[in-house]
């Protein structure tokens, strides 16, 4: 039976696996950014998460808020472009919400990601449909919240539901990222292209999906 909560160890394992995935998928993100940006998103994300990963060993596993805040501050200081400040804000604000928590259940996780999304929206002023990372993160959080109000699956108090909910959140992020293809970008570099930004998947929405897929895979393992 999987645990009904995420521990600091789980969060650290997630970040570790996210760093691996972003390194492995660097070319995919770079190619997406080549089509509607400046070809640096893969490099930005891989560099940022390599720096984050290098600090993981020194972080206290007993405070999830502190881990997430440290991830955010490291991304803020190591990643340039639009995505560094935005992902930095996402993790930092999620960490502020989780301050002092040794474990997160589904409701706490949804609340903490929502605080991160609010921070991203405040900083980047993007709304749903603007063809940004918000279009993957928003639906993922909606899926977590929908799972919260769904009845408990047979066979477990909470544990199975956390894993299932994360699987559904990752799936919603994937669908959200794919749904950015026909959109015209209204924020960031891609917006300079106007109508020509349509027909391409947003790189930031795609990296957001990869992050959430890593989280689901970590808990599902
Ligand atoms: P840059 O655009 O500065 O080169 P990156 O290539 O690393 O930075 O990141 C681009 C991604 O950042 C976009 O695909 C988009 O998802 C996201 N992004 C850009 N501007 C915003 C914004 N204002 N709000 C939310 N996300 C944004
Ligand atoms: Mg770029």
Walk me through the structure:
With 221 residues, this protein is mostly helical. The chain has a single domain (6-220), classed as DhaL domain (Serine Threonine Protein Phosphatase 5, Tetratricopeptide repeat). It has nine helices and two strands; from the N terminus they run βαααααβαααα. It has helices at residues 8-24, 26-36, 41-56, 64-78, 83-97, 106-124, 134-149, 159-178, 203-220; strands spanning 6-7, 103-104. The chain has a two-stranded antiparallel sheet. Helix 1 runs antiparallel to helix 3 and helix 2 packs antiparallel against helix 3. It is globular. The N and C termini lie close together (11 Å). Residues 33, 37-38, 40-41, 44, 81-83, 86, 120, 124-126, 132-134, 187-189, 202-205 line the site of adenosine-5'-diphosphate (ADP). Adenosine-5'-diphosphate (ADP) is lined by residues 33, 37-38, 40-41, 44, 81-83, 86, 120, 124-126, 132-134, 187-189, 202-205.
Question: Outline of this structure?
Answer:
The chain has 221 residues and is mainly α. It has helices at 8-24, 26-36, 41-56, 64-78, 83-97, 106-124, 134-149, 159-178, 203-220; strands spanning 6-7, 103-104.
CATH class: Mainly Alpha
| C-alpha end-to-end distance | 11 Å
Please write the string of helix (H) and strand (E) elements. EHHHHHEHHHH
Specify the structural class.
Answer: mainly alpha
List unreliable stretches of 5+ residues: none
Q: Biggest sheet, in brief? A: 2 strands, antiparallel
Helical content class:
55-70%
CATH superfamily: DhaL domain
Strand order of the largest sheet: 1-2
Radius of gyration based on Cα positions:
16 Å
What is the tally of helical segments?
9
Percent strand equals under 5%
Mean pLDDT: 94
| Total of domains | 1
Q: How many beta-strand elements? A: 2
Q: What's the multimeric state?
A: single chain
Distinct ligands: adenosine-5'-diphosphate, magnesium ion
Shape summary: globular
So, CATH architecture? Answer: Alpha Horseshoe
